[in-house]
Design goal:
Elements: H1 2-10, E1 16-19, H2 28-55, H3 64-80, H4 86-91, E2 93-97, H5 105-115, H6 119-130, H7 138-143, E3 145-149, E4 156-167, E5 170-179
Antiparallel strand pairs: 1-4, 2-3, 4-5
Helix pairs in contact: 2-3, 3-5
């Protein structure tokens, strides 16, 4: 393990990615539970905003704006923080970039944008992750993130390379961490 650290510290870390134990990746049932818990938290937030709008007699046509902003902040900034969302705290989960560090704001915006596309994307995500050894959803693949147990540590490091995905007739180029035999 010492050899891995010295190799990654002396090289350009932009193309070095973390490889985790397959047991550290979060699978289908935990992902569904995350959606339920965080969905419930966002629903309660929406109800509170609605009650504030009623109490202060604010125009109804502006109601969705604070709800959307709250959901955006909750699912991007809070989810990527060390604290995490309510579901991440309860289930002891974290989201990381391919390098093992907290993901950038841009990566979290990509995950959020793909999440709000609609229910078809959610269903496709859940089907996709069942066939992935790293249990990444499509939005994780596109954003370059992993959802892991909060105590997960890299077991080795590999090279980040571009790979091609064919999804329902659409071609995507995404980054993926591949084991590098010279590092091992």
């Amino acid at each position: 393990m010492e050899n891995i650290k010295s190799t990654t510290e002396s090289s350009d870390n932009s193309n070095i990615g973390a490889i985790y134990s397959l047991d550290d990746h979060i699978g289908l049932w935990f992902r569904i539970l995350i959606m339920i818990i965080d969905g419930l938290a966002l629903f309660i937030f929406g109800v509170l905003v609605f009650l504030l709008f009623l109490m202060f007699q604010l125009p109804d046509n502006y109601f969705l704006f604070p709800v959307f902003i709250g959901a955006f902040l909750y699912l991007t900034i809070l989810k990527a923080s060390e604290t995490g969302t309510i579901a991440y705290i309860m289930l002891k989960i974290k989201v990381v970039g391919l390098n093992g560090n907290p993901p950038s704001f841009i990566k979290m915006i990509i995950r959020f944008a793909l999440l709000i596309i609609g229910p078809l994307e959610f269903i496709l995500d859940m089907i996709w992750l069942t066939g992935e050894s790293t249990k990444q959803t499509l939005r994780d693949k596109v954003a370059g993130t992993y959802v892991l147990k909060s105590d997960a540590e890299p077991i080795e490091f590999g090279v980040v390379k571009y790979v091609y995905l064919d999804v329902l007739g659409y071609a995507f180029t995404v980054k993926e961490v591949q084991r590098n035999k010279t590092i091992i």
